[in-house]
Amino acid sequence: MKSVALTLTLTFCALAGTAPHAEAQIAQQKPISCSPAGGLHFVCGLTNVEDFLPIAGGRWLVGSSMKAGSAGLYLIDTSAKTAKAVSLSIAASPDPLYTGCTPPDLKGLVTHGLDVTEEPGHVTVYAINHGGRESVEIFRLDPRRASAVWIGCVLMPPGANGNAIAVLGKGSFAVSKFIDDADKQGFQHVRAGKITGAVYVWTPAKGFSELPGTELSGDNGLLASRDGNSLFVNAYGTRRIYRVPLSGRGERTSVGVDFDPDNLRWAPDGQIFVTGQFVGAPRAKGHVGWAVVRLDPRTMRITPVLRDPGSAEFEGATSTVQIGQTLWFGTFRGDRVAYRRAP
Predict the structure, then answer these.
(1) What Cα–Cα distance (Å) separates residue 165 from each residue in 112, 176, 192?
(2) CATH value at residue 168
(3) Comparing C-alpha atoms, which of 133, 205, 123, 122 is closest to residue 162?
(4) In whole angstroms, how far apart are CA 277 and each of 105, 124, 307, 338?
(5) How far is CA 52 from CA 2, 18, 113, 178, 338, in A?
(6) How many domains does the chain have?
(7) Residue 334: which region, alpha, beta or left (left: phi > 0; alpha: psi -120 to 50)?
(8) How high is the pLDDT of residue 121?
(9) What does the alpha-carbon distance between residue 137 and residue 73 come to, in Å, rounded to a whole number?
(10) pLDDT of residue 129
């Protein structure tokens, strides 16, 4: 559980400005109304949906739950504006591609970054997990039944505190290392712009290898380019988004933003939503402000989407997806996801 304690301590101390026991303190606060506020509507009854992705053409969102003892995975109905915890079980016969570890404690999952692939009848969910071990846990999800079966896992490289994952095809994927678990000042080093992370590519044949050009300050959100030739990766500590060749050869390009970039998600028009927080900035009534911009993956140009000072109802957004004319937002802490009409 060492990595879980480190992750939660860094997250809450750095972003909330509280003591290491902030999680318990927040849990004891009085419930906040689920009524619309600040131009946002909410789906409540969730726990720390740090990342989510649309599935079945946007019929649902599958979300993570970054807190021990919570759901593990959520399924959000984008039409009914409701959500439920996904029922989890262990497969009798795991996928032979992912036999690197024993089944997890399903009640102890702490899921973080996600990616998905879809086939007729089911969805495969890849989840960064901090619960009991640093790992990628893989599930076969049936959204019609809100149930998922664990089919395998891959342990993260030694010491790597995982953050985001991008599926590359043929069983392979890339993961970002935010900091090293052994570095007790890891988040402070990220805030100082020091190199703390990297991106690793995992293949069934070779396991993990570090991708050249991804040694950054707090490697965070990941997204594979549509042509499969590049990865987009956020450097949280230096507020930059990088495009790095997956081949490990050639030049990388980057662009800066004025907030701490967290997750990357595709917009319907082929641009990329970049979502992040204003950590360390003056806070309105102590809340963590956040912003969303669009990144052109070809030109690396940035276009603003929205900025929010944060509120008691919703703060510190981490991820943005668009379904129809509606933008949806996840957060690293809180009992809800938010949505609003796209500007």
Answers:
(1) 9, 7, 24
(2) 2.120.10.30
(3) 133
(4) 31, 29, 10, 15
(5) 25, 26, 8, 19, 12
(6) 1
(7) left
(8) 77
(9) 11
(10) 98
* Distance of alpha carbon 208 from alpha carbon 176, whole angstroms: 12
Residues in the chain predicted with pLDDT less than 50, given as ranges, are: 1-28
Mean pLDDT for the chain overall: 91
Q: Which domain holds residue 124?
A: 2-341
Task: Say which amino acid occupies 189.
Answer: H
Burial, 145: exposed, middle or buried (Cβ in 10 Å; 0-12, 13-18, 19+)? Answer: exposed
CB 328, CB 275: distance < 8 Å: no
| Helix-then-strand count for the chain, H and E | 3, 25
Comparing CA positions, the residue from 205, 214, 200, 201 lying closest to residue 254 is 214
Question: Residues 212-229: pLDDT tens digits?
Answer: 999 999 999 999 999 999
pLDDT number for residue 99? 86
Q: Which long-range contacts (CB under 8 A, 24 or more apart) does 274-277 make?
A: 274/221, 274/234, 274/241, 274/302, 275/317, 275/318, 275/319, 275/320, 275/329, 276/234, 276/236, 276/317, 276/318, 277/15, 277/316, 277/317, 277/318
pLDDT digits 0-9 by tens, 26-41: 333 567 999 999 999 9
pLDDT at 284: 59
